[in-house]
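Dear colleagues,

For the upcoming journal club I promised to circulate an example of a predicted protein-ligand complex. I picked one with magnesium ion because it came up in last month's discussion. The inputs are reproduced below in full, followed by the predicted structure.
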Amino acid sequence: MGENHFDEKDIAKISAIINTMDQLSDTSYIWVTSLQKRETWCSEKTADFFGLPDQIVPDFEHQLMEYIYPYDQPEYLEGIEKRLQGIELDEELCIRIRTKDKSYALFSIHTQVLLDEKGIPEYLIVLIKNENIFQKIDSLTDLYSEARFADDLKEVIAQEEKFAILQVQVKGFSTFNLVYGRDFSNDLLREIALQFIYMMDSDKAVYRLESERFVFILKKSGRQELLDFDKKVRQVLDAGIMVDGKLHPLKMASGAILLENYHGDASSVRGQVTYALNHSISKHQHQLVIFNDEVQTSRGADLALMKVIHQSVRNNCEGFYVVYQPIVDSNTGKIVGAEALVRWSHELYGTVPPGMFIEWLETDPSMYDLGNFVLRTALTETKKLLISKPDFFINVNISIRQLERPEFRQEVVKILSETEFPAKNLCMELTERCKDFPLDVLEQDVRFFQSYGIRVAMDDYGTGSASSNIVMNIPMDEIKIDMSFIRSIIDNPKNQAMVRSILYFADKSNMTTCLEGVENEELQNYLRDYNATWFQGYYYSKPIPFDALKNMLV
Ligand code: C2E
Ligand code: MG
Ligand code: MG
């Protein structure tokens, strides 16, 4: 074996250590790094967990970065770097790591430095422990816990039958705590749990969530069965719960969701039921709120439509396509580039604009696949324009659901190379929605893409305060000023001042600028005096299919 590999002696020593430690628990993973050789030996379980082809990996601690949640990467790196220098540290690292099912779980990292005979740090022993393994039984009520609910919910979803979820909150507990004390409240909760257990049959299950919240899975339940069950729960509480020989009549609020053939993930269902329950409390005097109705009436988004759209993304982005809106030179009005905008069409719903679904999809991991589909499609199509127009650029909107995934960077590099699209002709548009992302992680992403020659723009600039924070701290290449400032600018001195100051700032920071929403000739002529770099708007063209764009360019 060569210089950089473990020798026989190393391997015997390490595997003895690992074998002992590996038996400690089945939610922990172990590896040992030779600090001199910077090579890591992973236990079989660890190699399997990360999907490694080999148990011996060079520079493993750094390779692990791509599994770590972007927010946690700086903390991880700082902590692990010190340990790799052989520094023994007491505090443990707590970070989120991507698991096999692509979700993140919280892990604690425990390390120990082993010294050689001369007292020099020789091995770093690392044990990571999954902290997301919760108790499946609630110790107070003996009901199944939230963790078990999460598991069971996944299971009913997989069965693809109809079912309902009902979440309830029993009222009055803050008063009971105050007047009668904690012990009384706990007795009351135990009694309520018992009453709920009596209501169960083979199609029903009950779980205790936090405090006075309970949730039911009602298999095979449609609307009427749900309404009946909700009524029954209310009657049981209303009749009174017996504690210390006395009946205490209780009220509750409730929220529910009805599902049939649902293909989305369990966490959105949980979010939606909680949303319905919170609405029951805040807006509907504690009456039952069914998410399906609430969403249709109050948010304008149709749950059935969302389900079909979600399914289409899963189905290789079926029904999605890309249209292009030209971007022109502000002085000449000549087309210099275009923005790629996604559309979805379906025989039942017709062509649906992104305003109807992007915001909703942004809360869902499937936006990652849709965003990459748009990028790939846009580059594949517009590549053909570069033969006659080598400077033509394409702007593509990038979602936070893409940026947050560590593998996104390499995906972009791969798409560029597969489509043979020159990086310098691509501009990525980021929006305010990135504001929840830590600034330093965002900066690393922007710099990474820029190092390939990709340009990065701040989209919808001016609509929120976070975008200023982003452009002040991260070296962006372009600012796109939101059309809400542009459309009424002629009669609005405040908008004029605002746009002028943004353009001044961009000019001083060497950024190009694009004014969106240039809808007519009058606006165009008025805005020319502002010296922005590009214009975009209905005056030049609405978003159009690729072939129409191609025709506009000849
Ligand atoms: P955006 O990126 O700011 O795109 C510009 C939007 O303004 C487009 O709406 C465009 O049709 C509209 N627009 C352009 N010029 C005018 C004009 O002169 N007057 C008026 N009234 N509207 C104009 P669209 O296509 O409906 O897209 C809405 C938003 O959806 C986009 O805003 C973007 O934030 C998002 N979006 C669209 N496609 C994608 C995508 O592939 N990925 C992501 N992450 N977001 C996308
Ligand atoms: Mg945009
Ligand atoms: Mg925009």
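Two points we might discuss: The pocket of magnesium ion (ligand 2) is lined by residues 339, 397, 429, 459 (CB under 6 Å). The chain has a mean pLDDT of 88.

See you all on Thursday,
B. R.
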